[in-house]
Amino acid sequence: MGFSTQDGSGIPRRGTAKATAASPGSEPPPASARTLVPSAELLSEAAADSATSEEAAETPADLTPIVGANLRRLRVKRGLSLERMAKASGVSRAMLGQIELGHSTPTINVVWKIARALDVSFATLITEHTATSTALVLRNRAKLLTSHDGSFTSRALFPFDEPRNVEFYELNLTANAVEDADPHPIGTTENLVVTSGTLELTVGKVRHHLDTGDAIFFEADVPHSYRNPGSTNLTMYLVMSYANRVVGA
Length: 249
Fold this sequence. Notes:
CATH architecture of the largest domain: Orthogonal Bundle
CATH topology of the largest domain: 434 Repressor (Amino-terminal Domain)
CATH class of the largest domain: Mainly Alpha
Number of domains: 2
Mean pLDDT: 77
Largest sheet: 7 strands, antiparallel
Structural class: alpha+beta
Order of helices and strands: EHHHHHHHEEEEEEEEEE
Number of strands: 11
Radius of gyration: 17 Å
Low-confidence stretches: 6-61
C-alpha cells in the first residue's frame, strides 16, 4: 500500500498523502494548543532552506504537532542528530527541523522515509497513545490519508492508539489514477480485495488485473503500484501485515 502505518509501518503507501481526524475517544487539540518548545538546533534547521514541494505537501494541522513531537522523541531516543537522521531517511535537515517544530507536515512518502529510518511503524509517528479494549471508529473521525492531487485516499479502519502487526484500510482511487508505493519492511504482506471497480496492480515487475470481487495476497517489500484503468472510482480493502512487531514508544 502506498501508505501503511509500519515501515520499517502508506492509505497506505508510502504515498504523497495527508492525514486528518483523531483516534476514537481522544481527539488531539489544534496545533496552536500544542506548540513544541524549539531547541537552538531546530531553530537553525527551520530557518535553513525551505522544503521542496514534494516534502512539504501538508497534512491538516491537527496532526502536525503529533508528528513533530513523535519524530523528535524517537530521534533523540536513538541518539540521532538532525544530520544523521537526514542521511538515514533521505529527508532534508531543514524539513526534519520544520516538522519537529510543527511548522511543516510531511507527505505520506516522507513519513514512510522517516519511519524506515527510525525502524518504527507509520502509525507510531502520527498517533497519541490511548489505552482501550474496545474502539468504535466512526467515519467522520477516522484518519484519512489523501494523495497530493486528491486522486488516492486511504481510511484507517482501526484505532491509531498503538503500533500494530496488522492494519486494515479502505482505499479509493479515482478513474485513470495511479498510486505508487515504496517497498515496505522485509516480510510485510498485503491482502487486498476489490469491492468496486477495476485494479491494475504491479508488484515488482509483475502486473496483475483484478475486477470487482477479486482478491490478491502479495509480499509488499518490493516497489508496487495501484492503477485504476477504469472510468469509475475504484474501492479496495487492504489488510497490511508486518513480520515483526515494531515498538515505537
